[in-house]
């Protein structure tokens, strides 16, 4: 069993890698747009466009390969750690009751095989998704340039404004992955769903094996505030594994375990663990479960539930990351263009976006203060940099520092 808190946090490091890739690709697009040069005849423009499009694809392939190499080790680590944590949590009632010693805990060969196979499968899914990123980015680049060309040709927009809109659009959209169904998704969303679902379903399989070994007859399901309404109806209760009795419904029928919409399904943070009547104590009371869905957080005169608060905070975080990608794109264009006129124009636009970023950060801090929540800075503070070989290596605050400085200058004006 993995707790909802564990499932909420364990992907943060991996998503930091996705943010690095996201921002770097935004910078790549802006740099390649700058190298395409000013508007010329259609034939010359298309030739330049094709050249930079090919170069961009090579940029993205190189960066995705770095992420893939890093993620392979990270995926195995996450599955291994989750397996050990889940096993310890499953055995906790027996250890507390003196029925089992912690030193006796061992992962069986069957458990190890399940965990390794699941990690390999998840790694393959992530690799397949990231392989589509270069093609999706190239398509976005060509679309942005064609739209910019049409805007300038129509006389409705200046060259600077059309290019700015192209860079901003690429930053707002973020890096995409393409599913075999044809559906596209942002890379951080796709990776989180793949990891969360894969790890949680694997933990469920390990719990099933452990419960079978220990001859458990019941499962208790975890609960958390902010659960989606369809899951809130069955969270935090004890169920019979086989059949049902007068006090306990059947586990599979009640929770939908094994289906995409049910327990341990797509993006679900619920888990379950063996329950022994007379030994285990219920983890949740009715009052606790009722309190999870009560509107009890005050914000600007409104009462919000935990679910409402979580959705609003995530929206603030997405918006902040979006502004940082826009700033990274503008910064890259300023560094790449030879035109002083272009530099001046984009510095002005950089300042405008920096002011918006600082305003949004202030709004999120105030929201967290009023609702007594912790600002999760790890979800908003990542900026991508490369070493001299072009490899993604670490985070820094270069663009953030420029944004702070630009915001200060704007306030003085």
For the structure shown, list the relevant keywords:
9 strands; two-stranded antiparallel ribbon; mainly alpha; single chain; 413 residues
Order of helices and strands: HHHHHHEEHEHEHEHEEHHEEH
Please report the number of helical segments: 13
Structural class: mainly alpha
- The spatial strand order of the largest sheet comes to 4-3-5
Largest sheet: 3 strands, antiparallel
Shape: elongated
**Cα radius of gyration in angstroms:** 25 Å
Distance N to C terminus = 56 Å
Portion of residues in helices?
A: 55-70%
Annotation, overall tally of beta strands: 9
Mean pLDDT: 78
Unreliable residue runs: 383-388, 392-396
Portion in beta strands: 5-15%
Chain-wise SSE layout:
Elements: H1 4-9, H2 12-36, H3 42-96, H4 109-131, H5 133-154, H6 159-173, E1 176-178, E2 184-186, H7 187-213, E3 218-221, H8 229-232, E4 238-240, H9 251-255, E5 272-275, H10 286-292, E6 297-299, E7 302-304, H11 306-336, H12 340-371, E8 384-386, E9 392-395, H13 398-412
Antiparallel strand pairs: 1-2, 3-4, 3-5, 6-7, 8-9
Please characterize this protein's 3D structure.
With about 425 residues, the chain is mainly alpha-helical. Helix content is about 65%, strand content about 5%. The protein is built from 13 helices and 9 strands. The protein has helices spanning about 5-10, 10-35, 40-95, 110-130, 135-155, 160-175, 185-215, 230, 250-255, 285-290, 305-335, 340-370, 400-410, and strands at about 175-180, 185, 220, 240, 270-275, 295-300, 300-305, 385, 390-395. It has a 3-stranded antiparallel sheet. Strands 1-2 form a two-stranded antiparallel sheet. β8 and β9 form a beta hairpin. α2 runs antiparallel to α7 (about 185-215), α3 (about 40-95) runs antiparallel to α4 and α4 (about 110-130) runs antiparallel to α7 (about 185-215). The longest helix is centred in the N-terminal third of the chain and has 55 residues, at about 40-95. The protein is elongated and about 75 Å long. The N and C termini lie far apart (about 55 Å). About 35% of the residues are buried.
């Amino acid at each position: 069993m993995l707790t909802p808190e564990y499932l909420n946090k364990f992907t943060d490091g991996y998503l930091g890698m996705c943010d690095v890739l996201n921002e770097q690709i935004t910078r790549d697009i802006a740099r390649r747009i700058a190298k395409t040069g000013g508007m010329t005849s259609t034939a010359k423009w298309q030739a330049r466009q094709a050249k930079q499009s090919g170069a961009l694809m090579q940029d993205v392939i190189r960066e995705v390969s770095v992420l893939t190499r890093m993620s392979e080790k990270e995926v195995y680590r996450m599955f291994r750690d989750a397996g050990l944590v889940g096993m310890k949590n499953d055995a906790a009632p027996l250890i507390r009751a003196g029925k089992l010693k912690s030193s006796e805990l061992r992962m069986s060969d069957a458990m190890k095989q399940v965990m390794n196979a699941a990690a390999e499968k998840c790694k393959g899914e992530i690799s397949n998704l990231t392989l589509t990123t270069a093609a999706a980015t190239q398509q976005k680049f060509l679309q942005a340039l064609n739209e910019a060309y049409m805007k300038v040709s129509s006389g409705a927009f200046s060259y600077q404004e059309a290019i700015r809109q192209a860079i901003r659009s690429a930053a707002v959209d973020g890096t995409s992955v393409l599913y075999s169904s044809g559906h596209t998704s942002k890379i951080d969303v796709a990776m989180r769903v793949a990891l969360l679902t894969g790890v949680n379903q694997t933990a469920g399989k390990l719990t099933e094996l452990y419960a079978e070994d220990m001859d458990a007859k019941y499962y208790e399901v975890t609960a958390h505030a902010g659960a989606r309404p369809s899951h809130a109806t069955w969270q935090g209760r004890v169920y019979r594994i086989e059949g049902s009795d007068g006090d306990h419904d059947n586990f599979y029928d009640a929770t939908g375990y094994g289906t995409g919409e049910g327990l341990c399904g797509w993006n679900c943070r619920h888990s379950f663990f063996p329950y022994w009547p007379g030994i285990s104590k219920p983890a949740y009371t009715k009052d606790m479960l009722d309190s999870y869905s009560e509107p009890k957080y005050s914000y600007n005169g409104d009462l919000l539930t935990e679910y409402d608060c979580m959705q609003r905070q995530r929206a603030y975080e997405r918006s902040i990351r979006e502004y940082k990608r826009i700033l990274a794109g503008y910064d890259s264009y300023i560094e790449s263009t030879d035109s002083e006129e272009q530099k001046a124009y984009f510095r002005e636009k950089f300042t405008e976006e920096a002011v918006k970023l600082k305003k949004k950060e202030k709004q999120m801090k105030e929201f967290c203060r009023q609702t007594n929540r912790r600002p999760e800075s790890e979800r908003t503070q990542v900026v991508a940099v490369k070493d001299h070989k072009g490899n993604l290596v670490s985070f820094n605050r270069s663009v953030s520092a420029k944004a702070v400085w630009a915001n200060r200058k704007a306030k003085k004006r």
